[in-house]
Amino acid sequence: MRTITLIIVHCSANKAGSALRMADIDRYHRSLGWLGCGYHYVIPTDGTIEVGRPEEMVGAHCQNHNKHSIGVCYIGGLSADGSPMDTRTEAQRAALLKLLTDLHRRYPRALIVGHRDLNPHKACPCFDVVGEYRNFVVK
Q: Is this model's pTM higher than 0.90 or not?
């Protein structure tokens, strides 16, 4: 098994309300010549937690950090005019918390960060992951 030191949260950079699913990202990433969805988990607007790439496989979601991370992507991240914005639905917020709780339980030493925390040129995931989960406690 890989050594996981980071759990990286992303957004798909789609407008609020997008109907995109993991299968759509998988098709797109395959069209780029990748092995499939670069994220390990995708959370559509309805809050379903969809499995992308198996955790034992290296992801393709954050340059220079894929080898030791798990990638989680929520669908959205852009306002109606295309500006970066936290567009998570209540269902996505609940699902993200549930998923991060599970991942943190399994990888207790892994830091939970946003893509933008590792690449300052990115707005992704359009909210402050470190601030929101600063006091993250597994129950």
A: yes
The CATH number of the domain holding residue 81 is 3.40.80.10
Burial environment of residue 112 by CB neighbours within 10 A (0 to 12, 13 to 18, 19 or more): buried
- Count of the separate structural domains present in the chain: 1
Is residue 88 one of the residues assigned to a domain?
yes
pLDDT, one tens digit per residue, over 23-36 is: 999 999 999 999 99
d(CA 53, CA 39): 6
Residue 114's domain spans which residues? Answer: 6-132
Is there a catalytic annotation at residue 15? no
- Asked if the structure places residue 74 within a domain, the reply is yes
Closest by Cα among 128, 46, 50 to 86? 128
Grouping H, G, I as helix, E, B as strand and the rest as coil, residue 105 is: helix
39 noted as active-site residue:
yes
- 98 included as an active-site residue: no
Does any domain span residue 138?
A: no
Answer whether residue 124 is part of any domain: yes
Give residue-wise pLDDT tens across range 91-108.
999 999 999 999 999 999
Nearest to 29 by CA among 58, 60, 51: 60
- Catalytic option among 11, 29, 37, 39: 39
